[in-house]
């Protein structure tokens, strides 16, 4: 008598038919895309406003430097006093007034430069103004020191170090960025999946307890089988929901972007892309990205993603089920949730800080073997190249722990599901293991 | 008689707490066995051991001649005291699911469910969700699910709770019919009148120990004290009372009657036979009432627990 498929089927169907599950499945992508569209729309609006900035350059040194752009218009003021200029700027709805005094030395000019405005000016704007003035002053200084302007031009060399592994594979900053995105996305996805569907398993265990159906079921099937059926059934429901989300989001995104004419990448063009655009155009960047994607260990990544995702999820899912079995209602779960969430959060932190900083450092290595953190941390490390034996070892540890954890969870489950009415302490749960 | 279930010297500890101490019972095939005891005595633990929900620390359980094994769950139908159904599932789907877990094929389960739903007149509930039903209605479904796979051994823990008297009677008749069809029933309850009516055999568990076990009639015989309740019309009540008091131990009593008579409970010494006693009474006056006082299951229950 194999009841596992039967249990999985029931768990799956109950989850999938649940009204709030259906609503969330279809509403979430709409909300997600809606928020995205709103943000994109608003930032477009923001870009359309033009900032007028008056410039009073008494020294006359910088007059040629101010070039108006689509968003910032510079208006050079004729020779008027600072007070007049301030008054004019206030009545004129000008964003701000940049004042450059006249003096003998460049140093005192630089010290006297002031930006007047109604409110504190935006940081990026100030940065770009400062940078522009700085470079002009530097050039002037070099000229003062007797440098030829041609020499000065030739002095400017941008360094973008080439990266290469000892095996001779070329790597690049762009590649590292992509690896980070791959690893980060995988780790984050797992994190979200565990929290959403782990909770779902826990709730379904609690529901069986509160509806008192559990003893009826448990007289027909072994608790371990019920536990496994629950985990698998809920996981399948989760995968279904996730797939629908991905498809819906992709479809809606395409629709929204084509309707509003928003370029999804326009909102936050990366520094990388801008720099490259200057060198070689957008086409070049796209090619680079494609090449880098090809350079990633795709097959390895996919296999390991599946293994770690499944292993990590199952490990945590059995913990969630054990917590559900130990308590009577969802409000009692708090004290047991912390020890589950802690390693998970730790994994994400280690992943996003330590791994990015040093993918193969001691900390990263250690955490990529500990089963509670390895799914997230190892997934983030793999794009940077991890020897196969390390990956295999980590997977083995993970699945070994999972089997141990199911045993542990089933023990708690067996006793816990038949305990009503009292909130157990850790000590009691420890005793249950010996029953 | 052949035994369907034999529990041999079963003990079970939960940590430091002893839930069952060396308990043995034997249930005859085709009988109704009452498992009695106050709350927390260990009845549920014993029932869970029989259902293989928990394992005994020591001792063994034999079902139909074989030591208990996982496959046996399909021969047992269990209606736990803490019972319920999935609230959001439809009645029919749920019943099918539970029946399949007991090893019935889907087709077979459907056929039998139709039969039982018609029998209990609940056919039109098939597509309703459990949460739309009243507690009594849900209990009926639960009963059907328990007996659906024709188990050899039926275990009912407080089967009548939640039923109105009409439905309680209906369920009682169904249980008796199942017994007549060959099933063996273990019956755990606090309702002594149903024990009285239905059980052939009882075992009483108190504080983890079995303190009483046997056929209900034998136990009653064992617990009766040779007390008779009498009603007597005599010319002189005071004189008769005095003469009764002199010969026997008597206690005042009341019972319903249409006459004005002397009413007493009389404890008969072993040396006096019933016939001699009746002869004596008729010599005193007109005998209107003569009943041997047989202890009820409830009396036995209370007396044994208090003496224990």
Automatic annotation (TrEMBL), chain A:
Keyword Cell membrane recorded: yes
Transmembrane spans: 21-42, 180-202, 242-262, 301-324, 336-356, 388-410
Membrane topology: Multi-pass membrane protein
Gene Ontology cellular-component annotations: plasma membrane
Location, primary (coarse class): membrane
SUPFAM superfamilies listed in its UniProt record: Periplasmic binding protein-like II
Subcellular localization(s) per the UniProt record: Cell membrane
Sequence ranges assigned to domain ABC-2 type transporter transmembrane in this UniProt record: 19-410
Protein name, as recorded: ABC transporter permease
Organism field: Aequorivita xiaoshiensis
From TrEMBL, chain B:
GO MF terms held by the record: ATP binding; ATP hydrolysis activity
SMART domains per record: AAA
Domain ABC transporter residue range list: 5-232
Keyword Disulfide bond found: no
Taxonomic superkingdom: Bacteria
InterPro entries tied to this protein: AAA+_ATPase (IPR003593), ABC_transporter-like_ATP-bd (IPR003439), ABC_transporter-like_CS (IPR017871), ABC_transporter_ATP-binding (IPR050763), DrrA1/2-like_C (IPR025302), P-loop_NTPase (IPR027417)
Entry's family note: Belongs to the ABC transporter superfamily.
Protein name: ATP-binding cassette domain-containing protein
Organism the protein comes from: Aequorivita xiaoshiensis
């Amino acid at each position: 008598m194999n009841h596992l498929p039967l249990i999985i089927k029931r768990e799956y169907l109950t989850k999938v038919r649940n009204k709030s599950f259906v609503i969330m499945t279809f509403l979430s992508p709409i909300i997600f895309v809606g928020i995205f569209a709103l943000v994109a729309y608003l930032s477009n609006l923001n870009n359309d406003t033009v900032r007028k900035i008056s410039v009073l350059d008494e020294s006359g040194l910088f007059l040629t430097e101010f070039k108006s752009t689509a968003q910032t218009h510079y208006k050079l003021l004729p020779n008027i006093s600072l007070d007049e200029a301030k008054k004019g700027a206030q009545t004129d709805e000008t964003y701000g007034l940049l004042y450059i005094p006249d003096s003998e030395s460049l140093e005192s000019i630089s010290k006297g430069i002031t930006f007047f405005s109604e409110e504190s000016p935006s940081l990026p704007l100030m940065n770009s103004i400062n940078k522009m003035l700085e470079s002009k002053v530097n050039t002037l200084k070099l000229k003062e020191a007797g440098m030829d302007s041609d020499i000065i031009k030739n002095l400017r060399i941008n360094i973008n170090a080439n990266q290469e592994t000892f095996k001779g594979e070329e790597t690049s900053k762009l590649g590292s960025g992509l690896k980070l995105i791959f690893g980060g996305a995988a780790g984050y996805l797992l994190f979200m999946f565990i929290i959403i569907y782990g909770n779902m398993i826990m709730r379904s265990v609690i529901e069986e307890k509160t509806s008192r159906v559990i003893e009826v079921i448990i007289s027909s099937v072994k608790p371990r089988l019920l536990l496994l059926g629950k985990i698998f059934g809920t996981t399948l429901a989760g995968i279904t929901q996730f797939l629908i989300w991905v498809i819906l989001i992709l479809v809606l995104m395409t629709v929204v972007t084509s309707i509003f004419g928003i370029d999804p990448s326009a909102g936050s063009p990366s520094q990388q892309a801008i720099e490259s655009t200057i060198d070689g155009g957008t086409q070049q960047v796209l090619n680079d990205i494609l090449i880098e994607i090809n350079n990633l260990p795709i097959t390895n990544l996919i296999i390991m993603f599946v293994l770690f995702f499944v292993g990590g999820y199952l490990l945590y899912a059995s913990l969630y089920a054990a917590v559900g079995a130990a308590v009577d209602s969802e409000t009692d779960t708090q004290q047991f949730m912390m020890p589950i969430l802690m390693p998970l959060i730790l994994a994400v932190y280690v992943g996003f800080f330590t791994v990015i900083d040093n993918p193969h450092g001691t900390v990263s290595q250690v955490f990529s073997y500990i089963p509670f953190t390895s799914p997230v941390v190892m997934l983030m490390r793999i794009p940077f190249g991890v020897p196969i034996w390390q990956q295999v070892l980590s997977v083995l540890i993970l699945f070994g722990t999972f089997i141990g954890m199911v045993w542990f969870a089933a023990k708690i489950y067996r006793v816990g599901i038949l305990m009503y009415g009292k909130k157990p302490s850790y000590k009691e749960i420890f005793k249950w293991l010996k029953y | 008689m052949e035994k369907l279930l034999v529990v041999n010297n079963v003990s079970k500890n939960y940590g430091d707490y002893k839930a069952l101490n060396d308990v043995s019972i034997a249930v005859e095939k085709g009988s109704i066995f009452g498992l009695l005891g106050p709350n927390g005595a260990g009845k549920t633990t014993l029932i869970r051991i029989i259902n293989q929900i928990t394992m005994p620390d020591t001792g063994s359980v034999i079902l139909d001649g074989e030591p208990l094994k996982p496959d046996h769950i399909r021969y047992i139908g269990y209606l736990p005291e803490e019972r319920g159904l999935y609230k959001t599932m439809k009645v029919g789907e749920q019943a099918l699911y539970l029946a399949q877990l007991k090893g019935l094929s889907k087709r077979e389960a459907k056929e039998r469910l139709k039969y039982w739903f018609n029998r209990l007149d609940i056919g039109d509930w098939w597509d309703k969700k459990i949460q739309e039903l009243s507690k009594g209605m849900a209990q009926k479904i639960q009963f059907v699910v328990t007996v659906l796979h024709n188990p050899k051994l039926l275990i009912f823990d407080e089967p009548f709770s939640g039923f109105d008297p009409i439905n309680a009677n209906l369920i009682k008749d169904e249980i008796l019919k199942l017994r007549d069809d060959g099933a063996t029933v273990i019956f755990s309850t606090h309702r002594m009148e149903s024990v009285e009516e239905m059980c052939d055999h009882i075992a009483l568990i108190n504080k983890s120990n079995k303190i009483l076990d046997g056929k209900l009639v034998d136990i009653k015989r064992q617990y009766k004290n040779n007390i008779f309740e009498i009603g007597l019309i005599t010319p002189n009540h005071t004189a008769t009372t005095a003469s009764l008091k002199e010969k026997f131990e008597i206690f005042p009593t009341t019972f319903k009657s249409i006459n004005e008579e002397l009413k007493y409970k009389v404890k008969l010494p072993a040396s006096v036979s019933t016939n001699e006693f009746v002869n004596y009474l008729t010599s005193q006056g007109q005998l209107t009432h003569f009943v041997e006082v047989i202890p009820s299951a409830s009396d036995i229950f209370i007396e044994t627990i208090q003496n224990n």
